[in-house]
Design a protein that fits this description.
The complex is a heterodimer. Chain A is mostly beta strands. Chain A has no helices and ten strands. In chain A, a hairpin with a 3-residue loop joins β5 and β6. The model of chain A has no long low-confidence stretch (mean pLDDT 96). In chain B, the strands form two sheets. In chain B, strands 2, 4, 5, 6, 9, 10 and 11 form a seven-stranded mixed sheet that branches. In chain B, strands 1-3-8-7 form a four-stranded antiparallel sheet, with no helix packed on it. In chain B, 0% of the residues lie in helices and 54% in strands. The chains are: A mainly beta, B mainly beta.
């Protein structure tokens, strides 16, 4: 079973700053099956990135996914006030999913 | 792709509930279907996956032996039969499919309480 670890637990940044979120896996897997989500209170998770680096429909280009093997990164180049929320990474496969514990992004 | 869950509600500990997820706008039988849950204030937890044909099923350890996933490809619907429910099963349950992208339903709330 693949275990995903996310860091930091919380990120407090000002609008316009760059955010770097990390997702580390306990074992290597294909980057084709790594996704990132944003979730706000009371809402369904919003898919941002799939296949490690592909933006989902309608996602602004300030969101960039990268990485391979066991280390993956979500970068938000210039934070906007609406980017607050919890960000989850996910490994998905034909026999199930694994989620990281999440990184909370607070906007100062 | 559209996914619409139903069947959530309030149930007593030890009780049962059956969730449904009606799918549309893709060839249902070609794709595995998955249930994911989120307890109040907690993170996302994978629950169960069923292959497109229904021949293989997979479960999280936390629900194995209590929950059963199934599907009816003639009705484009996937089910989650939940038995022996516990307070810790209280969560919003989402139906998810990977059709190149990952698509989620809006979720259905299950509350296990006396």
């Amino acid at each position: 079973e693949i275990v995903l670890t996310q860091s930091p637990g919380t990120l407090s940044l000002s609008p316009g700053e760059r955010a770097t979120l990390s997702c580390r896996a306990s074992q290597s897997f294909s980057s084709s099956y790594l996704a990132w989500y944003q979730q706000k209170p009371g809402q369904t998770p919003r898919l941002l990135i799939y296949g490690a680096s592909n933006r989902a429909t309608g996602i602004p280009d300030r969101f960039t996914g990268s990485g391979s093997g066991t280390d993956f990164t979500l970068t938000i180049s210039r934070l906007e006030p609406e980017d607050f929320g919890v960000y989850y990474c996910q490994q998905y496969g034909s026999s199930g999913f694994t989620f990281g514990p999440g990184t909370k992004v607070d906007i100062k | 792709v559209q996914l619409l869950e139903s069947g959530g509600g309030l149930v007593q500990p030890g009780g049962s509930l059956r969730l449904s997820c009606a799918a549309s706008e893709f060839t249902f039988s070609n794709y595995a279907m998955t249930w994911v849950r989120q307890a109040p204030g907690k993170g996302l937890e994978w629950v169960s996956t069923i292959t497109g044909s229904g021949s293989s099923t997979f479960y999280a350890n936390s629900v194995k032996g209590r929950f059963t996933i199934s599907r009816d490809n003639s009705k484009n619907t996937v089910f989650l039969q939940m038995n022996s429910l516990r307070a810790e099963d209280t969560a919003v349950y989402y139906c998810v499919v990977v059709v190149r992208l990952l698509y989620w339903g809006q979720g259905t709330l299950v509350t296990v309480s006396s």
